[in-house]
Protein backbone atom coordinates (compact mmCIF):
# COMPACT_ATOMS: atom_id res chain seq x y z
CA UNK A 1 0.00 0.00 0.00
CA UNK A 2 1.28 3.47 -0.74
CA UNK A 3 1.02 6.38 1.66
CA UNK A 4 -1.33 9.18 0.61
CA UNK A 5 0.08 12.61 -0.09
CA UNK A 6 -1.92 13.95 2.85
CA UNK A 7 -0.42 11.49 5.35
CA UNK A 8 3.06 12.09 3.91
CA UNK A 9 2.61 15.82 4.46
CA UNK A 10 1.38 15.20 7.99
CA UNK A 11 4.46 13.07 8.77
CA UNK A 12 6.81 15.74 7.33
CA UNK A 13 5.23 18.52 9.35
CA UNK A 14 5.08 16.45 12.52
CA UNK A 15 8.83 15.80 12.20
CA UNK A 16 9.52 19.48 11.53
CA UNK A 17 11.03 18.50 8.15
CA UNK A 18 13.96 16.69 9.76
CA UNK A 19 15.05 13.07 10.06
CA UNK A 20 13.62 11.83 13.34
CA UNK A 21 16.62 9.55 13.90
CA UNK A 22 19.56 11.83 13.15
CA UNK A 23 18.16 15.39 12.88
CA UNK A 24 19.31 16.12 9.32
CA UNK A 25 16.77 18.51 7.77
CA UNK A 26 15.34 18.80 4.27
CA UNK A 27 17.43 21.96 3.94
CA UNK A 28 20.60 20.03 4.86
CA UNK A 29 19.72 17.27 2.42
CA UNK A 30 18.52 19.76 -0.22
CA UNK A 31 15.38 17.74 -0.80
CA UNK A 32 12.56 15.84 0.82
CA UNK A 33 13.42 12.86 3.03
CA UNK A 34 11.84 9.42 3.04
CA UNK A 35 9.12 7.79 5.09
CA UNK A 36 10.22 4.87 7.24
CA UNK A 37 7.89 2.24 8.62
CA UNK A 38 9.24 1.76 12.16
CA UNK A 39 7.69 -1.70 12.22
CA UNK A 40 8.63 -2.68 8.66
CA UNK A 41 5.85 -3.64 6.29
CA UNK A 42 7.83 -6.75 5.40
CA UNK A 43 7.49 -7.78 9.08
CA UNK A 44 3.81 -6.95 9.39
CA UNK A 45 3.96 -3.17 10.04
CA UNK A 46 1.14 -0.96 8.81
CA UNK A 47 0.74 2.46 7.21
CA UNK A 48 -0.82 3.85 10.40
CA UNK A 49 0.64 7.35 11.06
CA UNK A 50 2.01 6.13 14.41
CA UNK A 51 4.19 3.66 12.56
CA UNK A 52 5.56 6.26 10.12
CA UNK A 53 8.81 8.08 10.76
CA UNK A 54 10.29 10.88 8.67
CA UNK A 55 13.74 9.61 7.86
CA UNK A 56 16.78 10.63 5.81
CA UNK A 57 17.96 8.31 3.05
CA UNK A 58 21.03 7.20 5.02
CA UNK A 59 19.21 6.28 8.20
CA UNK A 60 16.54 4.49 6.18
CA UNK A 61 19.17 2.50 4.31
CA UNK A 62 21.01 1.49 7.50
CA UNK A 63 17.85 0.67 9.42
CA UNK A 64 16.43 -1.32 6.52
CA UNK A 65 13.89 -3.95 7.63
CA UNK A 66 15.17 -4.38 11.15
CA UNK A 67 12.64 -5.76 13.55
CA UNK A 68 13.45 -7.87 16.60
CA UNK A 69 12.59 -11.50 15.84
CA UNK A 70 13.66 -13.15 19.09
CA UNK A 71 12.32 -12.10 22.50
CA UNK A 72 15.81 -11.04 23.61
CA UNK A 73 16.79 -9.35 20.31
CA UNK A 74 17.90 -5.74 20.73
CA UNK A 75 15.32 -3.01 20.28
CA UNK A 76 15.75 -0.01 18.06
CA UNK A 77 15.05 3.46 19.46
CA UNK A 78 11.60 4.69 18.43
CA UNK A 79 11.90 8.50 18.18
CA UNK A 80 8.10 8.82 18.13
CA UNK A 81 7.80 7.24 21.56
CA UNK A 82 11.00 8.14 23.40
CA UNK A 83 13.00 11.35 23.66
CA UNK A 84 16.54 11.10 22.30
CA UNK A 85 18.02 11.96 25.71
CA UNK A 86 16.50 8.77 27.13
CA UNK A 87 19.11 6.83 25.16
CA UNK A 88 21.90 9.19 24.11
CA UNK A 89 24.02 12.05 25.33
CA UNK A 90 25.68 14.37 22.84
CA UNK A 91 29.36 14.78 23.66
CA UNK A 92 31.35 17.98 23.20
CA UNK A 93 33.04 16.47 20.14
CA UNK A 94 29.65 15.94 18.45
CA UNK A 95 29.48 12.15 18.99
CA UNK A 96 26.43 10.46 20.47
CA UNK A 97 27.20 8.48 23.61
CA UNK A 98 24.67 5.71 24.18
CA UNK A 99 23.45 5.29 27.76
CA UNK A 100 21.12 2.31 27.20
CA UNK A 101 21.31 -0.99 25.32
CA UNK A 102 18.73 0.36 22.86
CA UNK A 103 20.88 3.46 22.44
CA UNK A 104 24.01 1.41 21.71
CA UNK A 105 22.19 -0.79 19.24
CA UNK A 106 20.64 2.22 17.47
CA UNK A 107 23.94 4.15 17.24
CA UNK A 108 25.57 1.08 15.66
CA UNK A 109 22.72 0.06 13.39
CA UNK A 110 21.98 3.56 12.06
CA UNK A 111 25.68 4.64 12.15
CA UNK A 112 24.63 7.68 14.17
CA UNK A 113 28.29 8.56 14.69
CA UNK A 114 29.12 8.67 10.99
CA UNK A 115 31.63 11.49 10.44
CA UNK A 116 29.36 13.76 8.32
CA UNK A 117 26.72 13.55 11.07
CA UNK A 118 29.25 14.51 13.75
CA UNK A 119 30.30 17.47 11.55
CA UNK A 120 26.61 18.35 11.16
CA UNK A 121 26.05 18.38 14.94
CA UNK A 122 29.14 20.53 15.50
CA UNK A 123 28.07 22.99 12.82
CA UNK A 124 24.57 23.18 14.29
CA UNK A 125 26.00 23.87 17.74
CA UNK A 126 28.29 26.54 16.28
CA UNK A 127 25.29 28.14 14.54
CA UNK A 128 23.37 28.15 17.82
CA UNK A 129 26.34 29.82 19.56
CA UNK A 130 26.51 32.43 16.81
CA UNK A 131 22.76 33.06 17.09
CA UNK A 132 23.11 33.59 20.84
CA UNK A 133 25.99 36.01 20.28
CA UNK A 134 24.01 37.89 17.66
CA UNK A 135 21.04 38.15 19.99
CA UNK A 136 23.32 39.60 22.69
CA UNK A 137 24.80 42.03 20.21
CA UNK A 138 21.29 43.14 19.23
CA UNK A 139 20.37 43.81 22.84
CA UNK A 140 23.58 45.82 23.35
CA UNK A 141 22.82 47.88 20.24
CA UNK A 142 19.27 48.45 21.53
CA UNK A 143 20.62 49.63 24.88
CA UNK A 144 23.05 51.99 23.15
CA UNK A 145 20.22 53.41 21.08
CA UNK A 146 18.16 54.00 24.23
CA UNK A 147 21.14 55.71 25.85
CA UNK A 148 21.61 57.92 22.82
CA UNK A 149 17.93 58.87 22.88
CA UNK A 150 18.16 59.73 26.59
CA UNK A 151 21.31 61.72 25.97
CA UNK A 152 19.62 63.65 23.16
CA UNK A 153 16.64 64.40 25.42
CA UNK A 154 18.99 65.64 28.17
CA UNK A 155 20.86 67.86 25.71
CA UNK A 156 17.57 69.30 24.54
CA UNK A 157 16.54 70.06 28.15
CA UNK A 158 19.93 71.63 28.75
CA UNK A 159 19.54 73.80 25.63
CA UNK A 160 16.10 75.01 26.76
CA UNK A 161 17.47 75.79 30.22
CA UNK A 162 20.32 77.83 28.74
CA UNK A 163 17.87 79.71 26.57
CA UNK A 164 15.76 80.54 29.63
CA UNK A 165 18.82 81.66 31.57
CA UNK A 166 19.87 83.89 28.69
CA UNK A 167 16.37 85.35 28.57
CA UNK A 168 16.40 86.08 32.31
CA UNK A 169 19.88 87.65 32.09
CA UNK A 170 18.74 89.86 29.22
CA UNK A 171 15.69 90.96 31.24
CA UNK A 172 17.89 91.81 34.22
CA UNK A 173 20.34 93.76 32.07
CA UNK A 174 17.55 95.69 30.40
CA UNK A 175 16.11 96.60 33.75
CA UNK A 176 19.44 97.84 35.08
CA UNK A 177 20.37 99.94 32.04
CA UNK A 178 17.88 102.87 32.40
CA UNK A 179 18.74 103.53 36.03
CA UNK A 180 22.42 102.72 35.56
CA UNK A 181 23.47 106.20 34.40
ZN1 LIG B 1 18.83 10.37 9.43
Q: Can you describe this structure?
A:
This protein is mostly helical. It has a domain at 5-113. It contains 5 helices and 4 strands. Strands 1-2 form a two-stranded antiparallel sheet. A two-stranded antiparallel sheet has the order 3-4. It is rod-shaped. The protein starts with a helix and ends with a helix. The model has no long low-confidence stretch (mean pLDDT 94). The protein binds zinc ion. Zinc ion (ZN) binds next to helix 3.
Could you give a short description of this structure?
The protein is built from 5 helices and 4 strands. It is mainly α and 181 residues long.
Fill in the keyword field for this structure:
two-stranded antiparallel sheet; single chain; 181 residues; mainly alpha; binds zinc ion
- Strand percentage lies at 5-15%
- Unreliable residue runs: none
* Structural classification: mainly alpha
Radius of gyration: 33 Å
User: Helix count, per DSSP?
Assistant: 5
Give the topology.
Elements (H helix, E strand, L loop, with lengths): L4 H10 L11 H4 L4 E4 L14 E4 L1 H7 L24 E3 L5 E3 L2 H9 L5 H66 L1
Antiparallel strand pairs: 1-2, 3-4
The structure holds zinc ion.
The site of zinc ion has 8 residues, from helix 3.
Amino acid sequence: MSISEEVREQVRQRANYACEYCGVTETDAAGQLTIDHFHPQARGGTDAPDNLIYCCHRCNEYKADYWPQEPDAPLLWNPRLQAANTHFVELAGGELYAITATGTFTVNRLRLNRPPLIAHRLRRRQNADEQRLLARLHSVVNLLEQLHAQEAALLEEHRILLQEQRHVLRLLLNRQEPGGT
